[in-house]
Write a structure and sequence with these properties.
With about 575 residues, the protein is an alpha+beta fold. About 50% of the residues lie in helices and about 20% in strands. Helix 11 crosses helix 12 (about 430-440) and helix 14 (about 470-490) packs antiparallel against helix 15.
Amino acid sequence: MNEYEVKSIPGDQEQLKKYAEDLSAVYRSEKRKREELEAANEQLVEARNELLKREKALEESRECYRSLVENLPVGVFRFYLSDPEKLVYANSVLAKINDDAIDKLMSQPVSSFFPDKDELNMLVLNTINDGSIKNRPARLKRTDGKLIWCSISAICRYDKSGEPEWIQGIVEDVSEKIENEKKLQRINEEFNLLISSMASVIIGVSIKDRITHWNPYAEKILGIKPSDAIDKVFCECNIKWEWIRIYESISKCILEDRLIRLDDIKYEKPDGKPGILGLTVTPLKHESDILEGFLILGRDLTEQRFMEQQLMQGSKLEAIGQLSSGVAHEINTPLQYVGDNIRFITKSFAVLLSILDLYQRASANYNDLEFFLERIREIEEISEKEMFSFILKELPGAIDQSLEGVEKVSSIVQSMKAFSHPGIGRKVPADINRSIENTVTVSRNEWKYDCELKLDLDYNLPEIPCYESELNQVVLNLLVNAADAIHENIEKGHIKKGVIIINTSREEYYAVITVSDNGGGIPENIRDKIFNPFFTTKEVGKGTGQGLALSFSIIHEKHGGTLSYETKMGEGTTFIIKLPFEDD
């Protein structure tokens, strides 16, 4: 019999009733317990479902975070300060920045990414002290050993006791950005250098008629300082010239939206003497095609006009004028990087002086340990800020490049001087190979864009009695004609690249100079006219028709030689100069 069975006690009804009541109480208690247990089970199931739901949400959140971090355009990292050499997280972008696989990246110590361990220590220390760092420039060393500039931002997390626990941050590769900024800076510097060094008046005026640009040459020609002109009303800047013609041209320039040229503008020089300017007025527009103002470019033509009045039209002066811009361009290129290097050297020298001064002060007070250490810290800060190692590395190269540029400019100037020498009025023995090389140098800008020029010179030739200056002119005329013929042939699509070959050789009693090109050749119907004065096939304003006629006269009449040609349509032309070894 179990505990719930009612024992039968005959005749004892009270006892039986008591057993029944006890049994009913036990039943009610068990039922209540069973209900409570079922309710507890239901709560447990609900709690378990809620926990599963939260775990799922947490996993989705983690997956979203991972996806977000992996798709960020920057590298992400994390490491614990208890083991700062080990990355506990890095995304694929960081691996890409480091040019490495993610698993190999995670296996490397953090310090291996920094060429200077002190740089890492400084970043960690600053992050711990400040709680975070933002856009801190730093050099990182990739797996292939290449150093790149990066921008690092990081935060430090602390435990409940306030102790730093881990650091997490982002890394952005800014090498290209820095390089672009340097290029932009160089372009701006080169532009400002170009504006400052141009031998032309440059005046910029806004749409509100306020002067915005005034270069040094404008000050030299017009006698007005930039400080007295910039931001002034244009018509109130006290230039003594033909204002009516100037403003008529400005109005035409703005209304017709095109460059307007003004020749022979009369003006008064700073010394009170009259002068002549040649000007162009050009509209200045924004990228959105909104007019912002206009630009006036000008040259002082006083001396040129005087020479034109005093001298007959001469091919030599024409050639020199034609070559001036080309020679200036050839000189300007090395001068630009010489200027850039000198500015770099100047800045570097200032950094070196500041570091040397700190070293001297530290050395003089080495007994004062605190003062000595403070100077050393200053030296380290300056070295890091000014990229001292970069300066030491690049300084010798900058000096070498500057010397190379100066030598190149000197070579061009010497060639121009030799080419333009007026001569002494009689034949003298000359090295024609050297003369040809000088002419090629000063005329380079005339042919370099369309042609490849090859020199095949016989350096065993003796010096030839000649008028060297006039011979230079002949070679120049033939060179320019060859370049023009090639340019025309390229425009017609017959060839892609021109070739000019200059050859010198010996032929019995003559030194022979040939100038060959792969232009279109000389048409048969004009071959008997090419040496006639004023005959030209070039467009108006491009040729005077005197180049070949003058060359023929110089070779035949002054040198007793010959000038002839061989030509074939579609293949090119060769001009042949023969100069006698002996002077009659």
